[in-house]
Amino acid sequence: MVNRAxxxxxxxGKLIAMDSGERTHQNVVVMRHGDRIDNFEPLWTEKADxxxxxxxxxxxxxxxxxxxxKFISNLGFPIHxxxxxxxxxxxxxASEVIHALCAVDDCVTRMSSADGVSIDPxxxxxxxxxxxxxxxxxxxxxxxxxxxxxxxxxxxxxxxxVLPEGTVDSTVERxxxxxxxxxxxxxxxxxxxxxxxxxxxxxxxxENLLLVTHGEGVGVSVTxxxxxxxxxxEVEYCAYSILQRSIKEKNPYGEFKLCSSQGHTxxxxxxxxxxxxxxVKEQEPQSTS
Length: 289
Description:
It is built from seven helices and eight strands.
C-alpha cells in the first residue's frame, strides 16, 4: 500500500514547536526543487548551453513560492537558515521560498516573486552547498546532457546572485569544497545526502534549517529517519520532509526523527519488505532530479 503522508507512528513523530525562549529542539526541512523546464519542453536541451542545469518553468516558481507561504502557516517554527544545491532549479526554488518567508507584506494575492514582493533580508541567511547537489551519475542526469569533460561549471558567485539580495551568507565555509566526481555511485550519493544533513545541522544547532536539494536527497531524509524503514516511491516537485531532534544535551545531540507534517508533503512511500523492494526496483523512475 502506498502512503502519501509520512507518519512514524510514534510519539517521537509529533512535531514540537519552538518558542522564542530557550530552544530545546532543532528542525530541518529537506525540500525538492520545483518543476524543471526540460520535463515540459523536451526540445529545450537541444538548444541549451547547459543542458544539465535546467531552470524552473513558471509553474515551478509558483509552486515554490506557495510552498514557502505554506511553511509560514503550517510548520509551527521559523526558518533561520537556508542551504541550497548549486543547480539552477534549486537556486530558483530557494529564491522563491525565501521571498515568501521574508515578505514584509501580506502575500495572499501574490503567486511568485515576479508579482513584486518586498522582503526583509534580515529574517534568514542563505548559502550554496555543493554537498546538496544532484547525484552525479547517469541515473539522475541523462548521459547525452552531461558535460563531456565532466566539468559542470558552477561558479559560486553566479549561484549566489540568484538568491535574494541581502540574504546570502558567504562567510559560511562549505562542507564540500567541490562537486563530487562525475559517475558518482548512487550509494555514495545517498551517503553524501545522509552525512550533509547531519553536518549542516551540527554547524547550526540553535537554528532551524531549510535544505533545498533534489529528489534523492529528500528520499534519503525519509528512509534514514523512519523506524519502520519506509521506502520512498516518489518525491513530487517541492515535496519536503521535516526532521527534528533534541538539542538539550549538547554532546551528543539527539538523533533526528521524521515528523508528521500538516497536509500533503508530496512524498510517496511503501513499507520495507522484500516484495516492496522488488516493486521499487522495477518501477523506479530513471531520474529523481
